[in-house]
């Protein structure tokens, strides 16, 4: 038996890099240090596996070989008038770079799953900048942790232990030395751990953030409550934030997906900026998939823009609302969707999925998903971070190495190897 | 008892949904967690709906019938929760409001109990 230490977990944006994976005869037999989600991923890679390339013939998916599937994919991209390359939350940075090259070569559009998570965060930070830090700085120094519109106990289960209120830092040691605040529409398991839980109404975040800004700036609110939250409670929170030595705001999709979207983020950034006049305060988005941050990074190095990049004019163009994969599909402009590291048929609104019936789909995925079932070409790939190595970015923008601990099933290549074959033929 | 109530739908992640996703999106575990709606107990009484009974949720974009379950995160009267997945996406809005992102949270919906005869 071989034990791999300090393995990175390829599940959520925490990118925990302290896992121990026990491997016997190329089979993962145990995973230590991971939460249930990370452990579940390592131990279930053999299940519901896509093992052979598939192509659609007369409406039915039939098995083929890799060479033919690659050939068919290249032909479809060459014949497409406007291909969209989408996904990347579960792909390595190296694979993302190759997909951007394909989008450039084919005059298509490249977009990542930020359009179903923190796209509005990106828009907010482009307007305002973001006072940020690494998770390590927060763990060592933060004496106040605020979770707004996120539920890490269920979505990022080790966040509170590794980086949040339960973590043990060099200068701030453990739960007793830290205050914890949760702001959410429901009393989630994370909220039950908090010193202060502030329940807000759905779609009221902008008003609450604006009221907090007023209080932090020593202005009086001439009302009893703001959208159902008593002003006394807001004053208590504003005081806690001002009196913290080092505060950290972690925010989730409760802010980005609610009414107001990027304006909520702008208000949150403005609040943190105001707090920095009185104390030290930082903020970090709770990114969901393990390399969605990496997708934004690679898109930005290669094109200048973090998502929604259109190459149809021969140069990168960026206009979210016009050039997002969702907008393009809704307008019926795309005739080919190339997907890697995502399952849009499960995660996009049904209205958009209906429009995909008129679009050719090419999918690279290790397992059988609803999107694979709808595909015209599906090519199996190795699980990156388990069966293939690569680079991923943690939610705070720190790049880390994804490791290979077992070989993929026979005949299955990494996504980078498959993409290289496609790109070579496109040139 | 009332038959039809306007509510706010919030979709989101849950631990069970994450575990179900890894088991397979075709697994019973995934379906059991994504094809249910969590309601505040008071709203369940208002609608005269019991644990595990069917309810119809309709938005501007579609309509689904899913099982009702009592929320463990109550009170949140007037707010219903569903885990991310294909069911709730029948209701979510493709409108991106200039951000590129559809609307998955804070959606206005109508909720009503489904009679057994109607279901079959
Ligand atoms: S918190 Fe996230 S990265 Fe860490 S072990 Fe759990 S799923 Fe993996």
Describe the overall structure.
The complex is a heterodimer of chains A (427) and B (120). Chain A is 36% helix and 22% strand. With 427 residues, chain A is of the alpha/beta class. In chain A, the strands form 5 sheets. In chain A, strands 5-4-19-18-17-6-7-15-16 form a 9-stranded mixed sheet. Chain A starts with a strand and ends with a helix. The radius of gyration of chain A is 23 Å and the shape is globular. Chain A has 3 domains: 2-43, no CATH class; 54-116 and 290-426, 3-Layer(aba) Sandwich (Rossmann fold), CATH 3.40.50.740; 119-285, 3-Layer(aba) Sandwich (Dimethylsulfoxide Reductase, domain 2), CATH 3.40.228.10. With 120 residues, chain B is α/β, with parallel strands linked by helices. Chain B has one domain (5-118): Barwin-like endoglucanases (Beta Barrel). A 6-stranded mixed sheet of chain B has the order 2-4-3-6-1-5. Chain B starts with a strand and ends with a helix. The model of chain B has no long low-confidence stretch (mean pLDDT 89). Classes of the chains: A alpha/beta (427), B alpha/beta (120). The complex binds iron/sulfur cluster. Iron/sulfur cluster binds at residues 9, 11-12, 14-16, 34-35, 37-38, 156-158 of chain A.
Strand order of the largest sheet of chain B: 2-4-3-6-1-5
Can you tell me the CATH topology of chain B?
A: Barwin-like endoglucanases
Integer average pLDDT of chain A: 96
Low-confidence stretches of chain A: none
The side-by-side strand order for the widest beta sheet of chain A comes to 5-4-19-18-17-6-7-15-16
Quickly name the level 1 CATH class of chain B. Answer: Mainly Beta
Assign a percent range to the helix content of chain A: 25-40%
- Total number of domains of chain A: 3
Q: Kindly name the structural category of chain A.
A: alpha/beta
| CATH architecture classification name of chain B | Beta Barrel
Instruction: Compute the separation of the termini of chain B in Å.
Output: 23 Å
> What would you call the shape of chain A?
globular
